Amino acid sequence: MLELESVETAYGAKQVLFGVSLMVRKGEVVTLLGRNGMGKTTTIRTIMGFSRLTRGEVRFLDEGIGHLSPHRIARRGIGLVPEGRQIFSNLTVHENLVATAANRLGTEPRWSHERVYELFPRLAERRRNMGNQLSGGEQQMLSIGRALLTNPLLLILDEATEGLAPLIRQEIWRCLDRLKSAGLAILVIDKNVNALAALADRHYILEKGRVVWSGDSQALRADPALLGRYLGV
Fold it and tell me: 200-214, pLDDT tens digit by residue?
């Protein structure tokens, strides 16, 4: 579904990604792991067209998308839950959800605000509240719901549970597990290795802009030295 091949990205004269290659297959959950500043968010930004690749290729559904603008990439069927949530603070929960809702690809079953409210009952309770009246966890639920309402084929989450209370983190992981069971492909960044190992099919570890390890959850759990060396846990 999504494939990065030997991707390099730079900010001005500073190169950040060095030959990053990874793959997300249909229905898979795949993670990007690594300490802060190792290139995870830059990888996401490159996939979404916010950062231009200088070498390599990004393909989605066998089509090269590395040259496309962010809105055209999103229309191909990629939904982004960005770091920092970035909801519309001056709109209500419901207005946030319907503002960008679309089903350009004719996906079935179609995501609607009713389905989002069923997935996150807390949002249904707060549907008339403004975005700036929500807690951090509610804002993250809203950001996920907003992405789902674009009816994506692939959902990308940058720092899925960062800064959230434990109970809210559990709710986010429950949501992602349901989405996986429904067959949605997911690429996720987070620091909660135990939760990611339970949820995901495969993992990539980035170190200084390079993929230094990849494997499944069994292999990840089996190598504590690996976690200490690259993740600091």
Answer: 999 999 999 999 999
Q: What is the pTM of this model?
A: 0.93
- Smallest CA-to-CA distance from 39 within 73, 66, 10, 80 is with 10
pLDDT in tens, 126-147: 999 999 999 999 999 999 999 9
∠70-77-84 over CA atoms, to 5°? 55
Place of tokens 């495969």: 202
**CA dihedral for 75, 76, 81, 84, sign (positive or negative):** negative
Beta bridge partners of 156: 80, 187
Comparing C-alpha atoms, which of 203, 209, 206, 215 is closest to residue 31?
Answer: 203
pLDDT category at 107 given cuts 50, 70, 90 is confident
- Kindly state the DSSP code that residue 127 receives in the 8-state scheme: T
Q: Which residue has the tokens 């692939």?
A: 154
3-class SS at 26? Answer: coil
d(CA 133, CA 139): 9
